[in-house]
Amino acid sequence: MKQAHVSPPETLEELKSLIARRQIVFPDRLEQVARQVIERPEMVAFESAAEIARSCKVSQTTVLRLAQHCGLQTFAELRSMMRNHLQKVAMTHSEVTGRSKACAAPELG
């Protein structure tokens, strides 16, 4: 992170918060990639840096720099953050739909 010294984000929510508070400000090309990453975390979770670069029409180096600009050491850390986010979302969805099905189940008897 080139801005004020801030701890690296551990979650997508923390990353969004740092951006909203302008503690992370991106140059144009990095902002273009960051917007895509935030809107589509599955892209980072499952695609290679080269595939993301092609989708965003930037160089692979720009994609790799995004992680460092966010205060992370590697692209792998950014990927891990996005995978954790998606797992959390899936678990929450599973719990909610499981509860809904249980509530909607007809009583036997």
Major sheet description: none
Strand content: under 5%
Name the structural class.
mainly alpha
> What is the global morphology?
globular
* Top-tier CATH class: Mainly Alpha
Kindly describe this structure.
α2 crosses α5, α4 crosses α5 and α5 packs across α6. By secondary structure, this protein is mostly helical. 69% of the residues lie in helices and 0% in strands. It is globular and about 45 Å long. It contains 6 helices and no strands. 19% of the residues are buried. It has a single domain, classed as Arc Repressor Mutant, subunit A (Orthogonal Bundle).
Summarize the model shown.
The chain is mainly alpha-helical and 109 residues long. It is built from six helices and no strands.
Annotate the secondary structure layout.
Layout: H1 12-20, H2 28-39, H3 41-46, H4 49-56, H5 60-69, H6 75-104
Helix pairs in contact: 2-5, 4-5, 5-6
Characteristic terms for this protein:
single chain; 109 residues; mainly alpha; Arc Repressor Mutant, subunit A; 6 helices; globular
